[in-house]
Amino acid sequence: MWSDDMVSRLAEGTGVPTGEEQDLRQILVAMQHSLTQIDGKIDSLSYRMNRMTERLDKHAERLDQSERRVSELLGRTTFPDLFVVERAHCSLAARLPPGAPPRPLIASLLNNRAWDAALRRARELKTLQYEGMVVSLYPDFTLQVQEVRRQFIAGKKQLRELRLEYRMLYPAKLTTKSLLNSSNVE
Protein backbone atom coordinates (compact mmCIF):
# COMPACT_ATOMS: atom_id res chain seq x y z
CA MET A 1 0.00 0.00 0.00
CA TRP A 2 2.79 2.45 0.91
CA SER A 3 5.71 2.56 -1.42
CA ASP A 4 9.23 3.12 -0.13
CA ASP A 5 9.37 6.31 -2.17
CA MET A 6 6.20 7.66 -0.52
CA VAL A 7 7.48 6.85 2.97
CA SER A 8 10.85 8.47 2.34
CA ARG A 9 9.23 11.62 0.90
CA LEU A 10 6.90 11.84 3.91
CA ALA A 11 9.83 11.38 6.28
CA GLU A 12 11.90 14.02 4.51
CA GLY A 13 8.98 16.34 3.86
CA THR A 14 10.11 16.82 0.27
CA GLY A 15 8.26 16.66 -2.96
CA VAL A 16 4.73 17.64 -3.80
CA PRO A 17 2.29 15.62 -1.72
CA THR A 18 -0.20 13.58 -3.66
CA GLY A 19 -3.82 13.24 -2.60
CA GLU A 20 -3.05 9.95 -0.85
CA GLU A 21 -0.12 11.49 1.02
CA GLN A 22 -2.29 14.41 2.16
CA ASP A 23 -4.88 11.94 3.46
CA LEU A 24 -2.15 10.08 5.34
CA ARG A 25 -0.89 13.32 6.90
CA GLN A 26 -4.42 14.22 8.04
CA ILE A 27 -4.81 10.76 9.56
CA LEU A 28 -1.42 11.13 11.27
CA VAL A 29 -2.38 14.53 12.74
CA ALA A 30 -5.73 13.13 13.94
CA MET A 31 -3.98 10.15 15.57
CA GLN A 32 -1.47 12.42 17.32
CA HIS A 33 -4.35 14.55 18.63
CA SER A 34 -6.16 11.42 19.89
CA LEU A 35 -3.00 10.16 21.60
CA THR A 36 -2.56 13.51 23.35
CA GLN A 37 -6.15 13.35 24.65
CA ILE A 38 -5.74 9.74 25.80
CA ASP A 39 -2.46 10.63 27.55
CA GLY A 40 -4.26 13.43 29.41
CA LYS A 41 -7.02 11.05 30.50
CA ILE A 42 -4.47 8.50 31.73
CA ASP A 43 -2.70 11.19 33.78
CA SER A 44 -6.02 12.32 35.24
CA LEU A 45 -7.07 8.78 36.20
CA SER A 46 -3.72 7.94 37.78
CA TYR A 47 -3.86 11.21 39.73
CA ARG A 48 -7.34 10.34 41.02
CA MET A 49 -6.28 6.82 41.98
CA ASN A 50 -3.36 8.14 44.03
CA ARG A 51 -5.48 10.66 45.83
CA MET A 52 -7.06 9.60 49.08
CA THR A 53 -9.87 11.36 50.83
CA GLU A 54 -10.22 11.47 54.54
CA ARG A 55 -12.84 12.85 56.85
CA LEU A 56 -11.77 14.35 60.12
CA ASP A 57 -14.77 14.58 62.44
CA LYS A 58 -15.01 17.37 64.98
CA HIS A 59 -11.96 19.14 63.62
CA ALA A 60 -11.70 22.88 63.91
CA GLU A 61 -12.71 24.78 60.79
CA ARG A 62 -9.47 26.65 60.22
CA LEU A 63 -8.72 25.35 56.74
CA ASP A 64 -5.96 27.76 55.82
CA GLN A 65 -3.56 25.73 57.98
CA SER A 66 -4.97 22.26 57.30
CA GLU A 67 -1.61 20.63 56.51
CA ARG A 68 -0.07 21.88 59.74
CA ARG A 69 -3.08 20.85 61.82
CA VAL A 70 -3.21 17.31 60.42
CA SER A 71 0.53 16.85 60.94
CA GLU A 72 0.21 18.20 64.51
CA LEU A 73 -2.65 15.80 65.19
CA LEU A 74 -0.73 12.69 64.14
CA GLY A 75 2.80 13.87 64.89
CA ARG A 76 5.28 15.50 62.57
CA THR A 77 7.37 12.33 62.22
CA THR A 78 4.38 10.32 60.94
CA PHE A 79 4.39 11.64 57.41
CA PRO A 80 6.87 11.27 54.58
CA ASP A 81 8.39 14.38 53.05
CA LEU A 82 5.68 14.62 50.40
CA PHE A 83 2.72 15.23 52.74
CA VAL A 84 0.29 17.51 50.86
CA VAL A 85 -3.37 18.23 51.55
CA GLU A 86 -4.90 18.71 48.11
CA ARG A 87 -8.05 20.38 49.36
CA ALA A 88 -10.04 20.63 52.54
CA HIS A 89 -13.57 21.85 53.11
CA CYS A 90 -16.46 21.78 55.57
CA SER A 91 -19.32 21.97 53.10
CA LEU A 92 -21.12 18.74 54.03
CA ALA A 93 -23.22 20.25 56.81
CA ALA A 94 -24.88 23.57 57.54
CA ARG A 95 -22.97 26.04 59.68
CA LEU A 96 -23.71 25.41 63.35
CA PRO A 97 -24.52 28.08 65.94
CA PRO A 98 -21.71 29.51 68.09
CA GLY A 99 -20.58 27.18 70.86
CA ALA A 100 -21.55 24.02 68.96
CA PRO A 101 -18.85 21.52 67.94
CA PRO A 102 -17.28 22.35 64.57
CA ARG A 103 -18.45 20.67 61.39
CA PRO A 104 -16.52 17.71 59.92
CA LEU A 105 -13.49 18.56 57.81
CA ILE A 106 -13.05 16.67 54.56
CA ALA A 107 -9.42 16.62 53.41
CA SER A 108 -7.87 14.97 50.36
CA LEU A 109 -4.28 13.81 50.62
CA LEU A 110 -2.32 13.57 47.38
CA ASN A 111 0.04 10.83 48.48
CA ASN A 112 -0.93 7.22 49.29
CA ARG A 113 2.08 6.86 51.58
CA ALA A 114 0.92 9.86 53.61
CA TRP A 115 -2.54 8.35 53.97
CA ASP A 116 -1.16 4.95 54.97
CA ALA A 117 1.10 6.62 57.53
CA ALA A 118 -1.85 8.60 58.92
CA LEU A 119 -3.98 5.46 59.36
CA ARG A 120 -1.10 3.51 60.90
CA ARG A 121 -0.39 6.32 63.39
CA ALA A 122 -4.10 6.69 64.23
CA ARG A 123 -4.30 2.97 65.03
CA GLU A 124 -1.23 3.25 67.26
CA LEU A 125 -2.68 6.20 69.17
CA LYS A 126 -6.16 4.56 69.40
CA THR A 127 -7.84 7.86 70.40
CA LEU A 128 -6.99 11.00 68.48
CA GLN A 129 -7.65 14.33 70.14
CA TYR A 130 -7.12 17.83 68.85
CA GLU A 131 -7.70 20.80 71.13
CA GLY A 132 -9.68 18.56 73.49
CA MET A 133 -11.94 17.11 70.78
CA VAL A 134 -11.95 13.48 69.63
CA VAL A 135 -11.04 13.14 65.96
CA SER A 136 -12.08 10.23 63.70
CA LEU A 137 -10.33 9.26 60.45
CA TYR A 138 -12.16 7.53 57.61
CA PRO A 139 -10.19 6.15 54.65
CA ASP A 140 -12.75 6.93 51.98
CA PHE A 141 -15.52 9.47 52.20
CA THR A 142 -16.50 9.73 48.56
CA LEU A 143 -19.76 10.95 47.12
CA GLN A 144 -21.09 7.37 46.94
CA VAL A 145 -20.47 6.81 50.66
CA GLN A 146 -22.14 10.12 51.49
CA GLU A 147 -25.22 9.18 49.43
CA VAL A 148 -25.57 5.86 51.27
CA ARG A 149 -25.21 7.66 54.62
CA ARG A 150 -27.93 10.15 53.59
CA GLN A 151 -30.42 7.29 53.33
CA PHE A 152 -30.35 7.04 57.14
CA ILE A 153 -31.45 10.65 57.77
CA ALA A 154 -35.15 9.80 58.20
CA GLY A 155 -34.34 6.85 60.47
CA LYS A 156 -32.01 8.95 62.62
CA LYS A 157 -34.73 11.59 62.98
CA GLN A 158 -37.20 8.95 64.20
CA LEU A 159 -34.64 7.58 66.66
CA ARG A 160 -34.06 11.08 68.05
CA GLU A 161 -37.82 11.58 68.44
CA LEU A 162 -38.02 8.28 70.35
CA ARG A 163 -34.96 9.35 72.39
CA LEU A 164 -33.04 6.22 71.46
CA GLU A 165 -29.26 6.21 71.26
CA TYR A 166 -27.70 5.53 67.88
CA ARG A 167 -24.33 5.80 66.16
CA MET A 168 -23.27 5.98 62.54
CA LEU A 169 -20.37 3.62 61.87
CA TYR A 170 -18.09 3.86 58.88
CA PRO A 171 -18.82 3.55 56.01
CA ALA A 172 -22.62 3.50 56.24
CA LYS A 173 -23.96 1.50 59.14
CA LEU A 174 -26.49 2.70 61.70
CA THR A 175 -26.16 1.09 65.14
CA THR A 176 -28.80 1.41 67.84
CA LYS A 177 -28.89 0.32 71.45
CA SER A 178 -32.01 -0.79 73.21
CA LEU A 179 -32.60 -2.33 76.59
CA LEU A 180 -33.21 -5.76 75.04
CA ASN A 181 -30.31 -5.99 72.61
CA SER A 182 -28.23 -3.98 70.22
CA SER A 183 -28.74 -4.21 66.49
CA ASN A 184 -26.98 -3.07 63.34
CA VAL A 185 -28.70 -1.83 60.22
CA GLU A 186 -26.82 -1.47 56.95
Would you write up a description of this structure?
The protein has 6 helices and 9 strands, in the order ααβαββαβββααβββ. The chain is α+β, with helices and mostly antiparallel strands and 186 residues long. The protein has 3 domains: 4-48; 51-140, 2-Layer Sandwich (Alpha-Beta Plaits), CATH 3.30.70.1820; 142-186, L1 transposable element, C-terminal domain (Rec A Protein, domain 2). Mean pLDDT is 70; it is low at 57-64.
Instruction: Output the CATH homologous superfamily of the largest domain.
Output: L1 transposable element, RRM domain
Q: Uncertain spans, ≥5 residues at pLDDT below 50?
A: 57-64
Total of DSSP H or I helical runs spanning 4+ residues? 6
Mean pLDDT: 70
Q: What name does the CATH topology of the largest domain carry?
A: Alpha-Beta Plaits
Strand order of the largest sheet: 2-3-1-6
- How many domain modules? 3
Overall geometry comes to: elongated
CATH class of the largest domain: Alpha Beta
Task: Summarize the topology.
Blueprint: H1 4-12, H2 19-50, E1 52-56, H3 66-74, E2 85-89, E3 105-109, H4 112-125, E4 128-130, E5 133-135, E6 137-138, H5 143-150, H6 153-161, E7 166-169, E8 173-177, E9 182-185
Antiparallel strand pairs: 1-3, 1-6, 2-3, 4-5, 7-8, 8-9
